[in-house]
Prior knowledge:
- The protein is an alpha/beta fold.
- It has one domain (about 10-205): 5'-nuclease (Rossmann fold).
- The protein is built from eight helices and ten strands.
Amino acid sequence: xxxxxxxxxxxxxxxxxSNLYHSAKHLFSGRVNxxxxxxxxxxxxxxxxxxxxxxxTGVDEEQPFWDALTKASFELRMKDLQVFAGGAKKGDWxxxxxxxxxxIAPSVDAIVLATGDGxxxxxxxxxxxxxGVQVEVMAFSGSMASSLKDAADDFTDLGDSKYLMRxxxxxxxxxxxxxxxxxxxxxxxxSKPKARRTRRRATTADQ
Length: 207
């Protein structure tokens, strides 16, 4: 299918915030510029709806982030992080995103799905086949499922610097250095020679 973009095209955008947040953090030690993401997703077309799906842990520091998403013209879909008795945690929006896309697909010409989760491949193929909707995917190529990229009509790599913001005080190099230091740490914990000297002193004292 040829990708078509024109000013009269109606577009709906669906952003899996948690998926993109963690990908940007681990790949680039950065954050996603969601305002730039939305600008590129719409691409001078008619924006019908733009949803950002988030999971909240109840921490006060989250509120400025939610406010920034709202200011960037996203409608927030929020749910609390579930913590089970055994300590397991769950906080995904897969079903919620799928239901919203199926509900809105008949009213738009194109759907932009921002996630790298391969579980959405059947959904992409369904709306393409049943509604004739163009599906465009935005994600980080370094962490996304290749099957999702193959299923999409168009793909935008969010690894481009214009979609990223640096976390204050952090860089990719510093993160790598910290990781190497952590890996070397166990070697410094070995102290067998000291232990042997202590035992020899103890033996002499006993005599």
